[in-house]
Amino acid sequence: MYRHIYRVVKQIPAGSVATYGQVAELAGMPGGARVVGTALRALKETGSAGQVPWQRVVGKKSPGRGKISILDPVGGAMQKKLLESEGVELEASGAISLDRFGWLPPDAGRR
After folding, report:
1. What is the CATH number of the domain that holds 95?
2. CA distance 58 to 68
3. Which of 9, 34, 58, 93 could be cross-linked to 66 through a Cys-Cys bond (beta carbons 3.0 to 4.6 Å apart)?
């Protein structure tokens, strides 16, 4: 089950983000945002975090805005640093513009 999630996350290019819910939908698990979070946490336990760009998956703050939703301050700071190094800009509030940095797969408009 997690491999479907990882396959979607690996498609998100540097400088872009997708929400947990969006990844779940694209992996064939509508409503499975929490499963995506669990799958990404499992990367740390298996030592596979370097193989999947987990930092590009964010929570949904409000329509058109994402956020870092890792509760652990160290993990959240790491995600912020990685995203900024890829060119993703966070507002002072921590919000990320999904209009500007949100990712859609190439075939999203043809469904």
Report:
1. 1.10.10.10
2. 5
3. 58
